[in-house]
Amino acid sequence: MESSPFFIETLVKKVREEIFSTFDVYNSFVSASAYDTAWLAMIPAENPNKFEQCCGPMFKGCLEWVLSNQKEEGFWGARDMNGLPTIDSLPSTLACIVALKKWNLGDTNINKGLAFVRENSETLLRERHHSLPRWFAIVYPAMVELAQATGLGVAHEVRGVLSDVLLKRQQFMETEGDVNDYQYYPPLLSFLEALPSTCNIDRETILKSLNKDGSLFQSPSATAYAFMATGERKCKEYLERLVRRCSRGVPPMYPMDEELIKLSLVNQVTRLGLAEHFSGEIEVILSEAYSKSNAFAGSFCWFVHDEDILGHIERNSGYFMSAMLNIYRATDLMFSGENELKEARSFARKLLEKNMRRRCEEDGLLEMPSFHEVVEHELSLPWIARLDHLDHRFWIEANDHVDALWIAKASFYRWDGKGLCGHGRIIFEALDGLVTDIAKKHLRQQGSDITDNLRDIWQETFGAWLVETTWSNNGYIPSMEEYLETGMISIASHTMVLPASCFLNPNLLNHKLKPSQNEPITKLLMASSRLLNDIQSYQKEQLDGKINLVLLHLKGNPKAEIEDSISYVKEILDEKKTELLEHALMDYGSNDLPKPCKLLHLSCLKVFQMFYNSSNQFDSDTELFHDIKRGIYIPPEYPVPRRIPSPSKTETKCSKVKACLIGESKYQGGRNFNTGQNFAWSATPISVGRDKVVIPPKFRLCFPATKDFRWTAGVRGNFGRAFLWGRGY
Question: What positions does the domain Terpene synthase metal-binding occupy (predicted)?
Answer without folding.
Answer: 411-577
